[in-house]
Prior knowledge:
Elements: H1 8-14, H2 32-45, H3 59-71, H4 74-82, E1 90-97, H5 115-120, E2 130-136, E3 142-149, H6 158-162, E4 169-171, H7 179-187, E5 191-193, H8 208-211, H9 215-238
Parallel strand pairs: 1-4, 4-5
Antiparallel strand pairs: 1-2, 2-3
Amino acid sequence: xxxxxxxxxxxxxxxxxxxxxxxxxxxxxxxxxxxxxxxxxxxxxxxxxxxxxxxxxxxxxxxxxxxxxxxxxxxxxxxxxxxxxxxxxxxxxxxxxxxxxxxxxxxxxxxxxxxxxxxxxxxxxxxxxxxxxxxxxxxxxxxxxxxxxxxxxxxxxxxxxxxxxxxxxxxxxxxxxxxxxxxxxxxxxxxxxxxxxxxxxxxxxxxxxxxxxxxxxxxxxxxxxxxxxxxxxxxxxxx
Length: 239
């Protein structure tokens, strides 16, 4: 087996979840495993699509198939089927991915006096930035990821991050302390481990020892950042 390729045991777990298998309507895909290996090679190596080895077929065909499966929800179905989360508690958070300086469009002559300060002092994200909202289970394994524009408030995605899950507790920072979200968790009998905002008249008591475990979602984002940096570095060397 070559580097980055899926093992026989792993293949048995997902083969029946993929379109084009024997018995499906339409053309039977004889190369599903080869295609999965191609995607793994791209993801693990961080190389551009054009550098895909010839043994996987035409890079452009592989890319368009990858896109088609994404639009049809194939990848999402596979991820959900393979999940076996530990829902003793669930942690949610977000991070902003800064866009390249040229992604914001033409420079405007008039800008708010505090725009630059906001950008670097943790203020509202720019429209050209992307915010990643994520939920992870008790060991820190990712369960759900939502992408929004950079300036979208964390609390707007809270309900969607925990939808369909029934954890014993939800851990989050003050950005998620809203009446609507707290009431939602209380109504589902989920422990709220979210520090109250300082302007609340009645402060909420939380399990501080449990709250320390929230660093697992932060470590998840750190892994994403390291993976992205490695991919960018790899692509730079391949030019």
